[in-house]
Amino acid sequence: MARSLIAGAAGGLACLLLLASVAAARERAFDRPLDRPLDSGVLYELNLARTQPQAYARALQDAARLSRAAGAYDDPAAYAEAVDFLMRQPALPPLGADSTLEDAALSHADYQGPQGGFGHEGPRGESLGERLRRHGAFASLMAEDISYGYANPREVVLQLIVDAGVPSRGHRANIFNPAFREAGVACGPHRVYGAMCVVDFAGRLMRR
Questions:
Q1: Half-sphere exposure of 32 (CA within 13 A, CB side)
Q2: Is residue 137 within a helix (H) or strand (E), and if so which, with residue range?
Q3: Distance, CA of 15 to CA of 56 (rounded, Å)
Q4: How many CA atoms lie within 13 A of 49 on its CB side?
Q5: Please, what is the average pLDDT of the chain?
Q6: Can you count the helices (H) and strands (E) in the chain?
Q7: Which of 10, 61, 146, 164 is the most buried (most CB within 10 A)?
Q8: pLDDT of 80-130, one tens digit each?
Q9: CA geometry: angle at 34 spanning 32 and 39, to 5°?
Q10: CA distance 202 to 99
Protein backbone atom coordinates (compact mmCIF):
# COMPACT_ATOMS: atom_id res chain seq x y z
CA MET A 1 0.00 0.00 0.00
CA ALA A 2 2.80 2.39 0.93
CA ARG A 3 4.60 1.48 -2.28
CA SER A 4 1.52 2.31 -4.39
CA LEU A 5 1.09 5.65 -2.58
CA ILE A 6 4.72 6.52 -3.30
CA ALA A 7 4.30 5.53 -6.95
CA GLY A 8 1.13 7.59 -7.20
CA ALA A 9 2.81 10.61 -5.64
CA ALA A 10 5.78 10.24 -7.99
CA GLY A 11 3.45 10.02 -10.97
CA GLY A 12 1.56 13.10 -9.82
CA LEU A 13 4.82 15.02 -9.35
CA ALA A 14 5.97 14.00 -12.84
CA CYS A 15 2.67 15.23 -14.27
CA LEU A 16 3.00 18.55 -12.46
CA LEU A 17 6.58 18.94 -13.68
CA LEU A 18 5.48 18.20 -17.26
CA LEU A 19 2.67 20.76 -17.06
CA ALA A 20 5.08 23.31 -15.60
CA SER A 21 7.61 22.70 -18.38
CA VAL A 22 4.91 23.08 -21.05
CA ALA A 23 3.73 26.33 -19.46
CA ALA A 24 7.32 27.57 -19.25
CA ALA A 25 7.91 26.69 -22.91
CA ARG A 26 4.81 28.66 -23.87
CA GLU A 27 6.03 31.65 -21.87
CA ARG A 28 9.46 31.42 -23.51
CA ALA A 29 7.80 31.48 -26.92
CA PHE A 30 6.87 35.10 -26.22
CA ASP A 31 10.35 36.11 -25.03
CA ARG A 32 13.10 37.67 -27.12
CA PRO A 33 11.33 37.89 -30.49
CA LEU A 34 14.43 39.53 -32.01
CA ASP A 35 16.48 36.31 -31.88
CA ARG A 36 15.37 35.19 -35.35
CA PRO A 37 15.97 36.47 -38.89
CA LEU A 38 13.20 38.78 -40.00
CA ASP A 39 11.61 36.55 -42.67
CA SER A 40 11.48 33.39 -40.56
CA GLY A 41 10.74 35.44 -37.45
CA VAL A 42 7.60 36.89 -39.02
CA LEU A 43 6.32 33.41 -39.91
CA TYR A 44 7.12 32.26 -36.37
CA GLU A 45 5.13 35.18 -34.95
CA LEU A 46 2.21 34.55 -37.31
CA ASN A 47 2.05 30.99 -36.07
CA LEU A 48 2.25 32.07 -32.43
CA ALA A 49 -0.72 34.34 -33.06
CA ARG A 50 -2.67 31.57 -34.82
CA THR A 51 -1.94 28.83 -32.29
CA GLN A 52 -2.01 30.95 -29.08
CA PRO A 53 -4.28 33.94 -29.76
CA GLN A 54 -5.07 34.71 -26.12
CA ALA A 55 -1.39 34.77 -25.19
CA TYR A 56 -0.80 36.96 -28.23
CA ALA A 57 -3.40 39.39 -26.93
CA ARG A 58 -1.27 39.79 -23.82
CA ALA A 59 1.80 40.31 -26.03
CA LEU A 60 -0.14 43.04 -27.82
CA GLN A 61 -0.86 44.74 -24.51
CA ASP A 62 2.80 44.50 -23.48
CA ALA A 63 3.94 45.86 -26.84
CA ALA A 64 1.65 48.85 -26.50
CA ARG A 65 3.48 49.76 -23.31
CA LEU A 66 7.03 48.85 -24.30
CA SER A 67 7.45 48.74 -28.07
CA ARG A 68 8.74 51.52 -30.24
CA ALA A 69 6.03 50.56 -32.77
CA ALA A 70 3.75 53.27 -31.45
CA GLY A 71 2.26 53.83 -34.89
CA ALA A 72 0.36 50.56 -34.59
CA TYR A 73 -1.47 51.95 -31.56
CA ASP A 74 -2.32 55.45 -32.77
CA ASP A 75 -5.89 54.24 -33.21
CA PRO A 76 -7.03 53.27 -29.67
CA ALA A 77 -10.28 51.78 -30.99
CA ALA A 78 -8.43 49.51 -33.43
CA TYR A 79 -6.01 48.45 -30.70
CA ALA A 80 -8.82 47.64 -28.21
CA GLU A 81 -10.77 45.80 -30.90
CA ALA A 82 -7.68 43.73 -31.80
CA VAL A 83 -7.19 42.67 -28.19
CA ASP A 84 -10.87 41.72 -27.91
CA PHE A 85 -10.67 39.78 -31.19
CA LEU A 86 -7.66 37.79 -30.02
CA MET A 87 -9.26 36.96 -26.69
CA ARG A 88 -12.23 35.43 -28.53
CA GLN A 89 -10.31 33.84 -31.42
CA PRO A 90 -10.10 30.01 -31.41
CA ALA A 91 -6.67 28.49 -31.89
CA LEU A 92 -5.78 27.51 -35.47
CA PRO A 93 -3.15 25.18 -36.96
CA PRO A 94 0.19 26.78 -37.84
CA LEU A 95 0.98 27.80 -41.39
CA GLY A 96 3.56 25.74 -43.24
CA ALA A 97 6.47 27.50 -44.92
CA ASP A 98 6.31 27.22 -48.70
CA SER A 99 9.26 28.07 -50.93
CA THR A 100 7.13 29.07 -53.94
CA LEU A 101 5.13 31.52 -51.86
CA GLU A 102 8.42 32.83 -50.46
CA ASP A 103 9.71 33.35 -54.01
CA ALA A 104 6.55 35.23 -54.98
CA ALA A 105 6.79 37.42 -51.88
CA LEU A 106 10.50 38.06 -52.50
CA SER A 107 9.91 39.12 -56.09
CA HIS A 108 7.42 41.74 -54.90
CA ALA A 109 9.70 43.00 -52.11
CA ASP A 110 12.63 43.20 -54.55
CA TYR A 111 10.52 45.10 -57.06
CA GLN A 112 8.83 47.51 -54.69
CA GLY A 113 11.47 48.21 -52.04
CA PRO A 114 14.14 50.00 -54.12
CA GLN A 115 11.62 52.35 -55.73
CA GLY A 116 9.64 52.99 -52.55
CA GLY A 117 6.40 51.61 -53.97
CA PHE A 118 3.23 50.79 -52.09
CA GLY A 119 0.43 48.25 -52.60
CA HIS A 120 0.05 44.84 -54.17
CA GLU A 121 0.62 45.50 -57.86
CA GLY A 122 3.93 44.47 -59.37
CA PRO A 123 5.50 45.39 -62.71
CA ARG A 124 2.87 46.25 -65.33
CA GLY A 125 0.14 45.73 -62.76
CA GLU A 126 1.14 42.13 -62.00
CA SER A 127 -1.11 40.55 -59.32
CA LEU A 128 -0.29 37.96 -56.69
CA GLY A 129 -1.89 35.26 -58.82
CA GLU A 130 0.25 36.26 -61.78
CA ARG A 131 3.38 36.25 -59.61
CA LEU A 132 2.56 32.76 -58.42
CA ARG A 133 2.02 31.54 -61.98
CA ARG A 134 5.34 33.08 -62.97
CA HIS A 135 6.91 30.91 -60.26
CA GLY A 136 5.12 27.80 -61.52
CA ALA A 137 2.22 27.53 -59.09
CA PHE A 138 -1.49 28.24 -58.76
CA ALA A 139 -3.89 28.52 -55.84
CA SER A 140 -7.64 29.01 -55.95
CA LEU A 141 -7.47 30.69 -52.53
CA MET A 142 -4.67 33.19 -51.90
CA ALA A 143 -4.04 36.55 -50.25
CA GLU A 144 -1.24 38.94 -49.47
CA ASP A 145 -0.37 41.11 -46.48
CA ILE A 146 2.31 43.80 -46.63
CA SER A 147 3.80 45.59 -43.64
CA TYR A 148 5.76 48.81 -44.04
CA GLY A 149 8.08 50.51 -41.60
CA TYR A 150 8.98 47.74 -39.14
CA ALA A 151 12.06 45.52 -39.01
CA ASN A 152 11.15 43.51 -35.91
CA PRO A 153 9.10 40.31 -36.42
CA ARG A 154 6.67 40.96 -33.58
CA GLU A 155 6.11 44.58 -34.57
CA VAL A 156 5.38 43.49 -38.15
CA VAL A 157 2.74 40.99 -37.03
CA LEU A 158 1.22 43.28 -34.40
CA GLN A 159 0.87 46.02 -37.02
CA LEU A 160 -1.02 43.62 -39.29
CA ILE A 161 -3.25 42.34 -36.48
CA VAL A 162 -4.18 45.80 -35.19
CA ASP A 163 -4.75 46.81 -38.83
CA ALA A 164 -5.30 50.48 -37.96
CA GLY A 165 -6.74 52.47 -40.85
CA VAL A 166 -8.13 49.37 -42.58
CA PRO A 167 -11.87 49.25 -41.77
CA SER A 168 -12.26 45.69 -43.10
CA ARG A 169 -9.33 44.46 -40.96
CA GLY A 170 -8.37 42.51 -44.07
CA HIS A 171 -4.76 41.87 -43.03
CA ARG A 172 -5.92 40.39 -39.74
CA ALA A 173 -8.57 38.32 -41.51
CA ASN A 174 -5.88 36.79 -43.72
CA ILE A 175 -3.73 35.82 -40.74
CA PHE A 176 -6.64 34.08 -39.03
CA ASN A 177 -8.27 32.55 -42.09
CA PRO A 178 -8.58 28.82 -41.24
CA ALA A 179 -8.56 27.92 -44.96
CA PHE A 180 -4.98 29.10 -45.39
CA ARG A 181 -2.47 26.31 -44.90
CA GLU A 182 0.80 27.74 -46.16
CA ALA A 183 2.63 31.05 -46.27
CA GLY A 184 5.76 32.61 -47.63
CA VAL A 185 7.45 35.66 -46.12
CA ALA A 186 10.04 37.97 -47.65
CA CYS A 187 11.33 41.15 -46.05
CA GLY A 188 13.75 43.79 -47.22
CA PRO A 189 14.68 47.47 -47.26
CA HIS A 190 12.17 50.04 -48.49
CA ARG A 191 13.24 53.38 -49.92
CA VAL A 192 10.49 55.37 -48.18
CA TYR A 193 9.53 53.39 -45.08
CA GLY A 194 12.90 51.84 -44.28
CA ALA A 195 11.66 48.24 -44.24
CA MET A 196 8.86 46.12 -45.65
CA CYS A 197 7.62 42.54 -45.27
CA VAL A 198 5.46 40.70 -47.78
CA VAL A 199 3.40 37.72 -46.56
CA ASP A 200 1.73 35.55 -49.20
CA PHE A 201 -0.91 33.05 -48.03
CA ALA A 202 -2.49 30.14 -49.87
CA GLY A 203 -4.85 27.27 -49.29
CA ARG A 204 -3.84 24.29 -51.39
CA LEU A 205 -0.99 25.23 -53.71
CA MET A 206 -0.81 23.45 -57.06
CA ARG A 207 2.37 23.36 -59.09
CA ARG A 208 2.80 22.98 -62.80
A1: 5
A2: strand 137-139
A3: 26
A4: 31
A5: 81
A6: 8, 6
A7: 146
A8: 899 999 999 999 999 999 999 999 999 999 889 888 776 676 567 788 888
A9: 135
A10: 12
